[in-house]
Write a structure and sequence with these properties.
The chain has two helices and nine strands; from the N terminus they run H-E-H-E-E-E-E-E-E-E-E. It is mainly beta and about 180 residues long. The chain has one domain: Porin. It has an eight-stranded antiparallel β-barrel. The longest helix is centred in the first third of the chain and has 18 residues. The two termini are about 30 Å apart. The relative contact order is 0.20.
């Protein structure tokens, strides 16, 4: 997982250094809470056999984009979605997931400095499973992602808050985050 994080950060760093002088480009980083969408029925079934679920964690995202015009942007991202933990009091299972992707943003300028946006895109994800009893496995796939957010801009720096949903083959993971964007 650390190698993937370093790879994602390296890609963003290379992209950011090559576009630092190009108008319309931006880079950013954000962090916040993640939550896997585990149904109440699934939680009840697991609790019935003595397993508890912790579906909340923290995550982060690094991204780079290009503002095509006042109303549209394209964005590449790496997101660490945190982990889900299951335990029966003796053994534990952890599921860590991360993703790379591309999104298109539709932007609505509200004032000179404040904007709302919606986004839709696709992402390639990877989930790693590990347990206290030595079990390990992985899964991956490609699915859709979407979200909404708001940006407040001050010259070259913007502050962003957003809510995103990542589909991982039918299992949704939500991320509520805040971050900073550097505009070129």
């Amino acid at each position: 997982m650390m190698k993937k994080t370093l790879l994602g950060l390296s890609i963003i760093a290379v992209l950011s250094s090559s576009v630092a002088s190009a108008e319309g480009f931006y880079i950013g980083v954000s962090g916040g809470g993640t939550e896997a969408d585990v149904s109440e029925a699934d939680k009840a079934a697991l609790a019935f056999v003595g397993v508890s679920v912790d579906e909340e964690d923290t995550g982060f995202k690094v991204f780079a984009g290009y503002r095509v015009d006042k109303y549209f942007a394209l964005e590449a991202f790496y997101t660490d979605l945190g982990e889900v933990a299951l335990t029966d009091g003796v053994d534990s299972l952890w599921i860590e997931s991360d993703t790379f992707g591309l999104s298109a943003l539709g932007i609505i300028p509200v004032t000179e400095n404040f904007e709302l946006f919606g986004k839709v895109g696709f992402h390639g994800w990877d989930a790693d499973f590990s347990s206290t009893n030595g079990f390990s496995a992985s899964d991956d796939g490609a699915n859709e992602t979407y979200g909404i957010g708001a940006t407040y801009s001050m010259d070259q720096i913007s502050f962003r808050a957003e809510l995103e949903r990542y589909n991982l083959d039918g299992q949704d993971v939500d991320m509520l985050s805040a971050g900073v964007v550097f505009n070129f």
